[in-house]
Amino acid sequence: MSVEELPLPIDASPRLQALISQPVPPLTSMPNTIEGWRKFQREEDAEATKITRAAVEMVGATVDLASIAGVPCFRVTPRQVAAKNEGRLIFHVHGGAFVFNGGYAAVGEAALIADAFKACALSVDYRRPPDHPFPAAPDDVLAVWKTVVGEHDAAKIAMAGTSAGGGLIMTTLLRFEEFDLPRPGAAFIGTPAADLTKTGDSTYLNAEVDHVLGRYEGRMEACLRLYAASGDLKDPMLSPIYGDLSGFPPTILISGTRDLLLSSTIRTHRKLRTAGATAELHVYEGQSHADYLMSFPGPESQDALGEIAQFFDRHLRY
Amino acid sequence: MSVEELPLPIDASPRLQALISQPVPPLTSMPNTIEGWRKFQREEDAEATKITRAAVEMVGATVDLASIAGVPCFRVTPRQVAAKNEGRLIFHVHGGAFVFNGGYAAVGEAALIADAFKACALSVDYRRPPDHPFPAAPDDVLAVWKTVVGEHDAAKIAMAGTSAGGGLIMTTLLRFEEFDLPRPGAAFIGTPAADLTKTGDSTYLNAEVDHVLGRYEGRMEACLRLYAASGDLKDPMLSPIYGDLSGFPPTILISGTRDLLLSSTIRTHRKLRTAGATAELHVYEGQSHADYLMSFPGPESQDALGEIAQFFDRHLRY
User: Is A127 at the interface with chain B, CB within 8 A?
Assistant: First the structure.
């Protein structure tokens, strides 16, 4: 069924209604050269940077550049840090299909979560294809984590990320045993790229319905294959849902009824529960992929950010 | 999209695969006389009774008839009652589109939950249309609750029900303030009939996909209208999602990605969270309406029953 035939959710705020009413992106041809990808990436990052600057300004956060373990990062200080959050930290990994949202665009989500939770965030501007395919991104995230937990109590840190960011958090957590690294006190894994293959009901039922991703084929698949390079998409280092999720920290997951990655989200939730982890699921009516971010500052976005903040507060040491 | 084009979930057990592979029920004409409805109901109840007898036998539960406040009920004693559950009780309200699963068929779900939680259950065989439309059913559930909480500590009781049963639990809870009744310690509301109108993404996206319900039109709509009689389907006493859910007990909700009532379930979850209630959501890949019951004794069903039992154990006084 196409999204035009689907009624608007009856309770949706005007902000969410406007988002939902956007057309599903058409199937377009993707770059077929390295230079074409670089140009596409620069253009997309520039657009995302504008949106990020507006979001950072709206919440009044301060953003500073940092270099940790040789990886560029951003330190995000919200307008207000709660007294009990002074020793707590959000370790943020941005989304963007592993290809986009680099540079300053990385911090948009970090700023929203830092503002809602009233705690500082550190956002990792990991390397991306076409110049740096897998495993550059998880290597960068792991390197920053190693340094950060040398200076902070891991039980006071929450990992947080959406889409590719959620997938990268899962991949990083899968490597903790090998490197004997301490786990974070909590994680937020929003509509994660936990399975890079076209698997799960929502990749079929929500194709041509999700106004953000549209469908698996085309842009999304091209980005995932560019990132994976010669890797097998079913390798748990690429599709962490196929890994052993035991030992994961308490995790909150968020998706929507129109999200192409709804199945990826609920499958991850069940895998976590089966592995014995504390895991909490929230699904929003009418929302496509990551609409809980894009609908900011609407009430549905505030609601989701509030759930994340409450969850972190319950599970992080202070 | 039709269910034939949808791949089977990759991890589904053979039992669930067999269920999922069943065709979606065709759109059939429904009875148009009271006598026609009575006959249809008798035939359906007889079929459901057979399935219930097999389920009760499989778990080795004992079922006894009781009359409480003039309402026929069943007392279900599982093979094993855990020591700490001796004072705890499952107050069960059966599903069946408000029209079916009366008589002995009422106890199927009660027996499965009693077995998983290792506690006794009481199942209410409420009055149904065509002879007793709304508000006979919620009146019966309320009358039994009033008597039960005169004899039991409500904090030791969990309400539990699927589909129409979940909707009736919600409707009953909405009336507790008016009658100054004590709340149960916890509730399980499985894929509830919380909204009798055709509302929510899943009523569109999962039409012709849900192998149990098929679609809103036809059988489901005819049953809901028979039950509501002249009532307005948006009345909170019929569609409790439109009521004030504040004061609801800690609640666990279950649905699936092919469930026609997925939206009803996740909207109820969000309404409960917004009202300040503890509420936990579980969504199963590939499952249609109430497949977590129908796939018993498969592992997905055991998993769902295990979640319900853990939730009750965490929240009920003992």
Answer: no
Chain A contact probe: residue of B8, B285, B291 with most A CBs at under 10 A = B285
Q: What pLDDT is stored for residue A4 in this prediction?
A: 79
Q: State the Cα–Cα distance between residues B165 and B188, nearest whole angstrom.
A: 10
Q: Which residues of B touch A285 (CB under 8 A)?
A: 200-201, 263, 266-267, 270
For residue B263, the chain A residues in CB contact (below 8 A) are 257, 285
Please give the torsion angle defined by the CA atoms of residues A235, A238, A244 and A245, in that order, rounded to the nearest 10 degrees. Answer: -170
Q: Which of A1, A204, A263 sits opposite B204 (nearest CB)?
A: A1
Q: E strands within B97-209?
A: 120-124, 157-162, 186-190
Q: Do A266 and B273 touch (CB under 8 A)?
A: no
Q: Is B209 on the interface with A (CB under 8 A)?
A: yes
Euclidean distance between CA atoms B259 and B220, whole angstroms: 13
Of the partner residues A205, A282, A303, the one whose CB lies closest to the CB of residue B281: A282
Distance of residue B239 Cα from the nearest chain A Cα, in angstroms = 14
CA–CA distance, A290 with A212 (Å, rounded to integer): 8
Strand residue runs (E) in A45-142: 62-68, 71-77, 89-93, 120-124
The phi-psi region of residue B5 (left if phi > 0; otherwise alpha if psi is between -120 and 50; otherwise beta) is alpha
| B34 C-beta neighbours (distance < 10 Å), count | 12
* Contact across the interface for A270 and B284, Cβ inside 8 Å: yes
Question: Could you tell me the strand order of the sheet in which A186-190 lies?
Answer: A62-68, A71-77, A120-124, A89-93, A157-162, A186-190, A251-256, A279-284
Using the Cβ of A202 and the Cβ atoms of chain B, whether some distance falls under 8 Å is answered with yes
B5 falls in which pLDDT band (50, 70, 90)? confident
Question: By the CB < 8 Å criterion, does B199 face chain A?
Answer: yes
**What ipTM is given for this predicted complex?**
0.97
Q: With an 8 Å Cβ cutoff, is B8 touching chain A?
A: no
Is the Cβ of A27 closer than 8 Å to some Cβ of chain B? no
Q: Average pLDDT of B179-197?
A: 98
Three-state DSSP class for residue B200: coil
Integer angstrom CA distances of residue B22 from B1, B133, B256 = 16, 32, 16
- Cα gap A220→A95, rounded to integer Å: 12
Within a 13 Å sphere around the CA of A278, how many CA atoms are in the beta-carbon half? 10
CA B286, CA B9: separation in Å to the nearest integer?
Answer: 6
Q: Which residue of A has its CA nearest to B254?
A: A281
Q: How far apart, in Å, do the first and last CA atoms of chain B sit?
A: 48
pLDDT over threshold 90, residue B4: no
Specify the pairing of strand A157-162 against strand A251-256.
unpaired
A220, A176 Cβ separation under 8 angstroms: no
* pLDDT tens digits, one per residue of A209-246: 999 999 999 999 999 999 999 999 999 999 999 999 99
